[in-house]
Q: What sequence folds into this?
């Protein structure tokens, strides 16, 4: 599997993601430059976390106009795998590849901490190495992770099993306290209807080595790699 | 030519920043404050286009770039001299 | 003759002015005067401190760069070196907490990446006034948000730090930021301007009128006229700095440049004077070519601006196009504004006229050095005398109160706002005794900590200075790291007051002695004087930033108990010392007594035992005993593990019960170990002549402390946890 | 009564947000954009005070709470019905 990690000006989890894919999963991995038009033949595009363009306007609002993102849109339309992590998720929302928008965290502060996620849809190419209801311990680090979309959209997402990850407590209960950023329906990760574009706020690349405290995030990359 | 664009959350979207400001004002004793909504303002200086062109370009810019229509709405105006901040 | 008011505005004395005239060979014009005023300010010239700083030991086998460059460098083997430094941003953070703290982070990051190193960790030492005052809460809120905004955005994790509270910081908060970077040994860069004819390139943000006189502001006392100094605060642009970081590292990695210097305090002036001064050359620049954000700027303003996110490069002539191409890739301009010259002068032209022509040596190296008078302060006698208050009835209640004191309570409210995991190296998250970062591809890991107990320094500066070093090293020992280098930020009051100078001298004496005994080189630091507002000085506050090396990251342990039934071992000895304790301050409102004594040889032996025991896998947790004493240390050990685990401690010491629980006697570490390793651990201690005693056992859901068989504390761990966890969020959410 | 308060950086203060938006607009081909400044807007609903009282309270609130006078400036106006966003 060939992965491409996109670098926007202001990306800062690009190397972290690259490191896990290349050194941890031993997959062919290349960087993709935002000004290019070339996806270099990758099988999966990863939009990493960070602060593209400083997130000064809205998170992801400017990155979506990059030349490369027009290619990524077409790639997604052709069914290619696209994984957006944190800022990458925000870019996917701004781009309209996933529905909804991000608001400031409910306590109006940046939050960096471990959270528990429940896998609500293990039947995607990003989660096939997990079980339904499995609890993953993965960190978040964001200011704007409070997912919002209108009630109709939410209903639609639930009906089609598009909510892949939800914030829960360590026992798997979706409590208000566990939903640290205040996301609608506790949504932490979403997939498009077709099942090839996933956006998630937590950082799986930070939870892919035992030394760093958790290996749960690795399951997501392994799912993609699995033949 | 200068234009001013105001972007704010739609009524249906919670505005926690506005709420926080409101609470701060109430604790400071400004009991007459009933509601606060916080938004963004952009002041843009334009050059080399006519007013008519601007009237077409500005809403396009606001809609495409400055506001996210899922959560935000905007208004805009061309600034006459005395209105500049 | 020169107008005295003009001199006063530039914080220069008449004697200093006369010296300038003789060095330049004529009366300086206004721009030149501005340049001297900046470079001869306390902040840039270290004129009051230099004589004393010289005493600090700076040599060591592994030192690649000691004091004198943007940051110190220590060889860590394997072809790698660490580059680290600490800086203060105290005054700006008081005036505008968010931007003041944010630009402080921006500044220290530039110091590190100018040397070719990629910054991999930030730590921050913060001191505020008490949180019952809304103003202090607002300052803390703004400072933390500012650090968070800059560090998070640029993608350098803030992995640790410290937060203290005391009245003396109410109008003078301290914001010290430490940064550490990693560099390949053969890719280190310096602030050199070598090669006559080489072009001088300006990169980064445009120059505006912001922060003119920032360095002189940091060199004068604050008073009511603070208002007028307001516009000196800059707005930081972490996004721009991220681009600058990537572009600079790229041109350095490709070896395209000769030298590089950031434009921080004192801006273009500092970089254009310091670079040639170090290389025995001169520089000539044309201000018309300097990218400007505002119209109509004068040469004075352009030279003195402290606009952020800017750098000055000296490139090899043939590489300029290549350098510009790399900057363009990162959406930045690299503008050729001048060249390196043979004459040893800084020459600046503007609109076809020469507006500055001064010897760089005069500007950089010939500032007068002062040995300011010092006098032992009168307050000492009164504060050192301590009549112990009667023993409190319920020591369990006292423990709950001490552990909820904001100085001791959980700091998650702060570090949750910092991205402390980006770059995926953080092996030990904030909350432990020291932060630990793995080095990708190596078995070894880096540990780092910031420390400094200002109350001890106020009560006895010499002892306080020594303890600051010892305690920082002890924190490293608790994660199994041996110290390899020191940086320090010395925050003091007005050095023109003899009492402050005395404190300064004594603190340095204490630090010097400790560094010698620990055999660790000081590779740099920063001095922040004039931390007085309306005549009141802060406590003398040295902040020590010490970096350590861990041999095998797989042996890493944390401060929390791990397994029920493990033996709890005290390394070191309990003593009857309550002076300067957090207990006296939190329970009795007293900042009094003599701080605990310290035997540095004993301290070193205790740490050595801990380091070796961890390296041999003999211990499961280690936590140092510091503020709050043994009782707080034990409670934290119960709380800080993956799950809460209680413990029962049986003590036989004859001390007064509160002194036994809360006294802050030095050179103690609380360790837990499994039964199988216990005898080896005790043998190791005996071999090094370090007292080590099994004082209890981990397990259960309560913290029980007995003295001579009698319970003095019996509390559910979860109650302690809640008191510790909720204290800071509650204090900060009061309206 | 509703008031609108606009808060923005003083002219001499760097406005990284505005700069970034400006660069984005230029890249998108809106070459006529000469400058962008970004600020905040607060819309406050008031109740139980006279217009005269409001005229005294609002600048006080803006100065004390909404703007940081060290780096920001503000303007304000009372909104007539048709001006609401
Ligand atoms: N407390 C200190 N201990 C040791 N060295 C210090 C101390 N304070 C400053 N220095 C060193 O003095 C030198 C001069 O500092 P400089 O780089 O001009 O200061 P800054 O970067 O703070 O403007 C630096 O190398 C710095 O590391
Ligand atoms: Mg420096």
A:
């Amino acid at each position: 599997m060939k992965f491409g990690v996109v670098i926007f000006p202001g990306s800062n989890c690009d190397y972290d993601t690259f490191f896990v894919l290349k050194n941890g999963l031993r997959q062919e991995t290349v960087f993709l430059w935002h000004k290019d038009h070339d996806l270099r033949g990758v099988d999966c595009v990863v939009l990493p976390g960070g602060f593209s363009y400083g997130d000064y306007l809205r998170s992801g609002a400017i990155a979506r106009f990059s030349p490369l993102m027009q290619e990524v849109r077409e790639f997604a339309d052709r069914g290619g795998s696209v994984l957006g992590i944190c800022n990458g998720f925000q870019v996917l929302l701004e781009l309209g590849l996933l529905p909804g928008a991000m608001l400031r965290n409910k306590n109006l502060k940046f939050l960096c901490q471990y959270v528990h996620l429940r896998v609500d849809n293990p039947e995607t190419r990003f989660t096939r190495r997990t079980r339904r209801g499995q609890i993953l311990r993965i960190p978040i680090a964001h200011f704007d992770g409070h997912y919002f979309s209108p009630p109709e959209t939410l209903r639609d997402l639930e009906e089609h099993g598009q909510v892949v990850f939800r914030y829960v407590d360590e026992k798997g209960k979706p409590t208000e306290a566990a939903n640290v950023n205040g996301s609608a329906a506790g949504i932490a990760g979403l997939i498009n209807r077709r099942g090839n574009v996933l956006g998630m706020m937590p950082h799986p690349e930070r939870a892919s080595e035992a030394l760093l405290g958790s290996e749960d995030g690795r399951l997501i990359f392994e799912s993609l790699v699995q033949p | 030519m200068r234009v001013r664009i105001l972007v704010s959350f739609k009524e249906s979207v919670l505005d926690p920043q506005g709420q926080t400001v409101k609470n701060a004002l109430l604790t400071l004793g400004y009991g007459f404050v009933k509601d606060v909504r916080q938004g963004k303002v952009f002041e843009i200086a334009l050059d080399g286009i006519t007013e008519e062109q601007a009237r077409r370009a500005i809403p396009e810019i606001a809609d495409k770039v400055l506001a996210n229509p899922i959560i935000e709405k905007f208004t805009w105006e061309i600034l006459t001299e005395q209105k500049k901040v | 003759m020169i107008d005295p008011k003009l001199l006063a505005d530039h914080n220069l004395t008449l004697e200093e002015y006369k010296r300038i005239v003789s060095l330049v060979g004529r009366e300086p014009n206004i721009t030149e005067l501005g340049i001297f005023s900046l470079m001869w300010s306390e902040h840039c010239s270290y004129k009051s401190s230099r004589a004393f700083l010289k005493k600090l030991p700076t040599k060591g086998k592994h030192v690649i760069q000691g004091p004198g460059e943007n940051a110190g460098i220590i060889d860590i083997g394997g072809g790698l070196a660490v580059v680290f430094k600490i800086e203060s941003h105290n005054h700006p953070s008081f005036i505008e907490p968010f931007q003041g703290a944010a630009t402080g982070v921006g500044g220290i990051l530039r110091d590190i990446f100018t040397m070719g190193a990629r910054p991999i960790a930030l730590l921050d030492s913060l001191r505020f006034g008490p949180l019952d005052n809304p103003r202090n809460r607002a300052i803390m809120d703004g400072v933390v948000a500012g650090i968070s905004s800059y560090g998070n955005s640029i993608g350098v994790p803030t992995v640790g730090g410290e937060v203290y509270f005391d009245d003396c910081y109410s109008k003078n908060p301290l914001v010290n930021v430490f940064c550490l970077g990693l560099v390949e040994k053969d890719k280190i860069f310096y602030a050199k301007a070598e090669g006559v004819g080489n072009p001088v390139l300006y990169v980064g943000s445009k120059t505006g009128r912001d922060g003119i006189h920032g360095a002189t502001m940091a060199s004068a006392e604050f008073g009511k006229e603070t208002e007028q100094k307001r516009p000196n605060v800059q707005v930081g642009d972490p996004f721009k700095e991220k681009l600058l970081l990537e572009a600079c590292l790229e041109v350095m990695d490709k070896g395209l440049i000769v030298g590089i210097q950031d434009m921080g305090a004192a801006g273009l002036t500092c970089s254009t004077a310091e670079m040639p001064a170090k290389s025995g050359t001169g520089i000539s620049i044309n201000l018309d070519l300097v990218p400007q954000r505002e119209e109509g700027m004068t040469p004075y303003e352009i030279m003195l601006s402290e606009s952020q996110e800017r750098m000055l490069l000296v490139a090899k002539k043939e590489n300029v196009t290549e350098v510009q191409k790399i900057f363009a890739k990162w959406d930045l301009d690299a503008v050729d504004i001048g060249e390196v010259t043979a004459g040893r002068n800084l020459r600046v032209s503007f609109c076809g006229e020469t507006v500055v022509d001064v010897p760089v040596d005069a500007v950089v190296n010939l500032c007068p050095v002062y040995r300011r008078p010092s006098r032992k302060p009168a307050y000492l006698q009164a504060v050192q005398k301590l009549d112990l208050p009667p023993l409190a009835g319920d020591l369990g209640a006292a423990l709950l109160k001490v552990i909820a004191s904001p100085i001791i309570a959980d700091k998650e409210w702060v570090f949750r706002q910092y991205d402390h995991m980006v770059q995926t190296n953080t092996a030990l998250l904030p909350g432990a005794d020291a932060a630990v970062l793995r080095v990708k591809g190596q078995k070894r890991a880096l540990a780092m900590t910031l420390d400094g107990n200002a109350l001890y320094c106020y009560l006895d500066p010499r002892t306080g200075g020594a303890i600051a070093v010892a305690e920082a090293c002890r924190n490293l020992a608790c994660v199994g790291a041996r110290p390899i280098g020191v940086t320090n930020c010395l925050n003091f009051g007005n050095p023109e007051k003899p009492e402050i100078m005395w404190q300064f001298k004594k603190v340095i004496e204490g630090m010097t002695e400790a560094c010698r005994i620990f055999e660790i080189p000081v590779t740099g630091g920063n001095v922040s004087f004039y931390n007085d507002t309306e005549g009141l000085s802060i406590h003398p506050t040295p902040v020590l930033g010490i970096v350590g090396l861990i041999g095998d990251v797989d042996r890493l342990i944390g401060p929390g108990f791990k397994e029920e039934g493990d033996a709890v071992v005290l390394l070191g000895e309990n003593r009857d010392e309550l002076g300067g304790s957090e207990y006296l301050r939190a329970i009795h409102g007293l900042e009094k007594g003599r701080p605990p004594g310290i035997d540095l040889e004993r301290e070193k032996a205790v740490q050595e035992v801990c380091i070796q025991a961890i390296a041999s896998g003999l211990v499961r947790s280690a936590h140092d005993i510091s503020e709050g004493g043994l009782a707080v240390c034990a409670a934290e050990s119960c709380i800080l593990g993956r799950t809460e685990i209680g413990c029962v401690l049986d003590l036989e010491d004859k001390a007064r019960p509160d002194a036994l629980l809360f006294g802050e006697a030095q050179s103690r570490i609380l360790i837990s170990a499994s039964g199988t390793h216990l005898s080896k651990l005790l043998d190791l201690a005996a071999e090094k002549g370090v007292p080590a005693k099994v004082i209890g056992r981990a397990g259960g859901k309560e913290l029980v402390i007995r003295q001579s068989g009698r319970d003095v504390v019996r509390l559910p761990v979860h109650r302690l946890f809640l008191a510790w966890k909720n204290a800071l969020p509650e204090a900060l959410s009061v309206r």
Remarks:
- Residues 224-230 of chain C have pLDDT under 50 and may be disordered.
- The two ends of chain C are 56 Å apart (CA to CA).
- Chain C touches chain A through 32 residues (CB under 8 Å).
- The longest helix of chain C spans residues 134-154.
